[in-house]
Amino acid sequence: MKFRKLLIATLVLSVWGGTMLFADSASQRVRVIVNGAELDDAGIFTDGKTYLSVRQVANTLQSLVFWDESSKKVTIYKPNVHMFLFQDTTIFGNVVKGNKITFKVFAQIDNLLTDISAVKITIADPGGDEQVIQSKNVSVDKDNFWYRTDDYTYTFNSAGKYTINFYMKVNAADDWKLVSQKTITAKAP
Fold it and tell me: Which residues belong to any copy of the Copper amine oxidase-like N-terminal domain (predicted)?
């Protein structure tokens, strides 16, 4: 009787272990690198195809992503946002560390294939501290528009890369979605 139970237990564990080994070999986790940065969620490779987290890929590519529960459909929108930084009438991209500059951000948005309710532009210093330059509710019913901030005065206290971030909200209750970035380099005098 003991031998029979031991035999059955051995067979069950063998079948279960073999199944787990097969499942592990059938799908593999893969590292996903986008523009030199590794995504937090690894991809899965199975049956000759790689599967990725849509939300993470969309965030990495600075896109808007929508999930429609009723149709079980994911839609990704990638608006083109081109930002220009003006100090008076001069375009700039580099500054001297310690300079206090008054500037404005011009943004040209096209290929906007969904409605949005608001835009926000921020500046982040090399340490990641982010300040809002301007945010505004918008009503856009076309696929392209221009947006200009008011004059903004900022002191570039340390050397390094400062990032101008352009965010959009589809609906007022949504979170802000980063859709574009522009870099300003502050160099030591």
Answer: 34-111
As beta bridge partners, residue 75 has 66
Domains of the chain, by residue range, sit at 2-75, 80-187
pLDDT of 25 reads 52
User: Is residue 111 within 8 Å of residue 80, measured between CB atoms?
Assistant: yes
Q: Which residues pair with 107 in a beta bridge?
A: 83, 147
- pLDDT tens, 15-69? 444 444 444 556 788 888 877 888 877 788 888 888 888 888 888 888 888 888 9
Does the structure show a pLDDT above 80 at 11? no
The per-residue DSSP string of 47-110 comes to TTEEE--HHHHHHHTT-EEEEETTTTEEEEE--EEEEEEEETTEE-SEEETT-EEEEEEEEEEE
> Which CATH architecture is the domain 80-187 placed in?
Sandwich (2.60)
